[in-house]
Write a structure and sequence with these properties.
- The structure is a single chain.
- By secondary structure, the protein is an all-alpha fold.
- It has one domain.
- The chain has seven helices and no strands.
């Protein structure tokens, strides 16, 4: 059995699964790095923020820090530092606290989208790769049946090649899907955990600076 000389459809199926696997592992590595870095930066910033002596120190820390919590904090300080604009307030029918809440909510949602990016690809690979592998299996069985029909023989050497190729596509499809599904579930939990941290911090920031 030589995959390099196998049927074109089988080769196309295997190349497609290989591309899916490469894409999913790229996302897995990038998201793992992002989640690890975001968690570390958030912990460092939250510790420094709540230990700041005053508002000016906290604002300087936000400007000097990296990470999602720092970005949310900078958005909040930007609203607090903005000059009063009655036109904006009247246009939206909201007072300063509502504007601050909306600005921070928008920033949290933007960071949440960043956390979620790529997870849909993992979900798609996990749900489609087994069926692509199954397609290769069905195609291989069809080739085996054609070989039997053409030769009029059911000897092993007639059907071994197509059946072997069919089994390989099934195995590759499963091997592509399993890591993608596991990574999607783990990534979704990490994204939700970090998202809750952002939401809680934004709520505390609003309460701290509005005295509510």
């Amino acid at each position: 059995m030589n995959l390099l000389t196998s049927d074109a459809i089988v080769q196309l199926t295997l190349w497609l699964l290989a591309a899916f696997s490469l894409a999913s592992w790229t996302v897995i590595l990038l998201k793992s790095w992002l989640f690890m870095r975001a968690g570390r930066q958030n912990r460092r910033y939250a510790r420094g923020f709540w230990q700041a002596g005053n508002l000016a120190d906290a604002q300087r820390l936000a400007q000097q820090s990296r990470g999602m919590l720092a970005a949310v904090s900078r958005r909040g300080f930007a609203v607090l530092q903005a000059p009063a604009d009655e036109g904006i307030l009247l246009e939206h029918g909201r007072h300063g606290q509502m504007l601050l809440e909306r600005a921070m909510r928008d920033e949290v949602q933007g960071q949440q989208r960043r956390l979620d990016s790529g997870l849909m690809l993992l979900a798609s690979v996990g749900s489609t790769a087994p069926f692509i592998g199954l397609f290769g299996t069905v195609w291989g069985i069809m080739l085996a049946l054609e070989s039997i029909s053409a030769s009029g023989s059911v000897e092993l050497d007639v059907v071994a090649g197509p059946i072997g190729e069919a089994l390989i596509t099934t195995a590759v499809g499963i091997a592509t899907a399993v890591p993608a599904v596991l990574a999607y579930n783990h990534g979704l939990r990490q994204a939700r955990r970090l998202g809750v941290e952002l939401e809680n911090f934004a709520a505390d920031f609003v309460e701290l600076h509005t005295g509510s």
